[in-house]
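Re: the 104-residue chain
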Amino acid sequence: MARSTKRTAEDGDPRIIVPTDRVASRDLSEPRELSVEEVLKSYEQRINEEQAWAVCYQCCRGLRVPRPPTAGVSPVKGPSSILLHRNGTVALRTRNSDFKESNL
């Protein structure tokens, strides 16, 4: 008999433990996204080939989506233009320097 691997605490499964100490200690002032430039500076080394291809793929995938002219996305001028979110999604910096989720 196959078992479902999609169990959650909400389902009442006692084997699922939610670490409340991590949630309480999370600093909400931490940025939710970093530019590729900031990541490279903080690691003080290059990203590996697999990571680079993942960023390229996500950027190309998002740029294929048609956008209205008022979307406000500026051209990619370098690593500071590409934003990496905590959840793994990629976005582009907007013209007005606000961060805009662009479904990349």
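The domain at 33-99 is CATH 1.10.510.10 (Transferase(Phosphotransferase); domain 1).
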